[in-house]
């Protein structure tokens, strides 16, 4: 590949056209509208068989959407949630695949319909003021009617049936989980308490080793669970609510506490469940004493009662009241004084 250099007065070929620019001259302020190139008809425009084949493909895509919705409904009732990780994983995977095919079928069918069956002639419209008069509104309605006529939906019975079926069934993927809980456990008081009780030792996660206050150095972070958590037969969600993050600060760095007497010699314990949407807060920055939620970047100041300093969370992390027993082990003084995690309909704050 070679490059030829010339002076400014020599013509240069750009896109098949000669463009001459002399020193002191400027290019044109506007270029003429080149217009549209020659229209190239699609196979479906000139071959009836190709047109029918495209129609069958669109019908098949809508059928995939219907099957995805049916699969979602079947999975919702066929896979019971017993609180185990396996059942949750199987349910989420099945429901997710059903929902994906339901949406994917509708979306790809609509795109394929527009690209292969509807009019593809290029059109241009000059910009104008957004406000429109009565005549322009009538023209807009006429354009919509022309679009419906162009889609030929009135003359394609099978295609119309597939479209209506997929759109009519798809809302089941949204409505069913909402109404499916009718008759289930609506006791919201369980959201207001966790497994922490007075005197329960704080142990390391996941080993379950009790923690002595003397073993926690300034700046260290320990992931904490209640003593005996692994041996209990509590549901998985109850175990998840009890996880705690323990941090030891220099007492001089503590600006304020949520509750007086909830910490011990600079050791503070806060719920790991973010008050935004419940993600685990686990990233600690030692210099700023900030805890970061990796999901949506909510940031909490451990030295200031875990108050929110950045992000979408609206409330501080609940603080677990702690003290030490006669042997120097860290123990809880009781449960959290407020519900952990995001809001629910009976939460006051």
From TrEMBL:
Record-annotated membrane-spanning stretches: 58-79, 91-114, 158-180
The keyword NAD is assigned to this record: no
Biased composition (Basic and acidic residues): 23-32
Span list, region Disordered: 1-50
Residues in Rieske domain copies: 241-331
Classification via Pfam families: QcrA_N, Rieske
Originating species: Cellulomonas oligotrophica
Record's keyword annotation contains Oxidoreductase: yes
GO cellular component entries: plasma membrane
PANTHER family in the record: CYTOCHROME B-C1 COMPLEX SUBUNIT RIESKE, MITOCHONDRIAL
Keyword entries, A-Z: 2Fe-2S, Cell membrane, Coiled coil, Disulfide bond, Electron transport, Iron, Iron-sulfur, Membrane, Metal-binding, Oxidoreductase, Respiratory chain, Transmembrane, Transmembrane helix, Transport
GO molecular function: 2 iron, 2 sulfur cluster binding; metal ion binding; monooxygenase activity; oxidoreductase activity, acting on paired donors, with incorporation or reduction of molecular oxygen
InterPro entries membership: QcrA_N, Rieske_2Fe-2S, Rieske_2Fe-2S_sf, Rieske_Fe-S_prot, Rieske_Fe-S_prot_C
Coiled coil (UniProt feature): 114-141
Job description of the protein: Iron-sulfur subunit of the cytochrome bc1 complex, an essential component of the respiratory electron transport chain required for ATP synthesis. The bc1 complex catalyzes the oxidation of menaquinol and the reduction of cytochrome c in the respiratory chain. The bc1 complex operates through a Q-cycle mechanism that couples electron transfer to generation of the proton gradient that drives ATP synthesis.
Topology of this chain in the membrane: Multi-pass membrane protein
Named cofactor requirement(s): [2Fe-2S] cluster
Name the UniProt record assigns to this protein: Cytochrome bc1 complex Rieske iron-sulfur subunit
Similarity annotation: Belongs to the Rieske iron-sulfur protein family.
Subcellular location(s) of the protein: Cell membrane
Main location: membrane
């Amino acid at each position: 590949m070679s490059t030829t250099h010339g002076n400014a007065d020599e013509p240069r070929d750009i896109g098949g056209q000669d463009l001459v620019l002399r020193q002191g001259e400027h290019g044109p302020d506007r270029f003429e509208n080149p217009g549209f190139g020659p229209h190239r008809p699609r196979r479906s425009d000139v071959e009836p068989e190709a047109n029918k084949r495209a129609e069958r493909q669109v019908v098949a895509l809508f059928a995939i959407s219907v099957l995805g919705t049916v699969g979602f409904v079947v999975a919702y009732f066929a896979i019971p949630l017993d609180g185990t990780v396996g059942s949750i994983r199987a349910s989420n995977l099945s429901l997710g695949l059903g929902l994906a095919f339901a949406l994917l079928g509708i979306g790809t069918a609509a795109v394929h319909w527009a690209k292969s069956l509807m009019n593809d002639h290029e059109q241009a419209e000059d910009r104008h003021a957004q406000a429109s008069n009565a005549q322009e509104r009538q023209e807009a309605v006429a354009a919509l009617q022309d679009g419906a006529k162009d889609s030929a939906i009135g003359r394609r019975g099978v295609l119309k049936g597939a479209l209506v079926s997929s759109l009519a069934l798809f809302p089941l993927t949204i409505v069913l989980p909402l109404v499916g809980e009718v008759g289930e456990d609506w006791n919201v008081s369980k959201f207001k308490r966790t497994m922490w009780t007075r005197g329960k030792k704080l142990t390391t996660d996941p080993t379950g080793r009790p923690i002595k206050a003397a073993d926690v150095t300034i700046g260290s972070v320990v992931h904490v669970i209640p003593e005996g958590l692994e041996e209990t037969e509590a549901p998985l969600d109850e175990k998840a609510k009890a996880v705690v993050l323990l941090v030891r600060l220099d007492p001089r760095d503590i600006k304020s506490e949520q509750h007086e007497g909830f910490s011990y010699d600079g050791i503070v314990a806060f719920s790991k469940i973010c008050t935004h949407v419940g993600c685990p807060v686990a990233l600690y920055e030692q210099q700023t004493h900030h805890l970061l939620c990796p999901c949506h970047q909510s940031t909490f100041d451990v030295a200031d009662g875990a108050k929110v300093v950045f992000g979408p969370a609206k409330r501080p992390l609940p603080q677990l009241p702690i003290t030490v027993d006669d042997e120097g082990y860290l123990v809880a003084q009781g449960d959290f004084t407020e519900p952990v995690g995001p809001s629910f309909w009976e939460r006051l704050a």
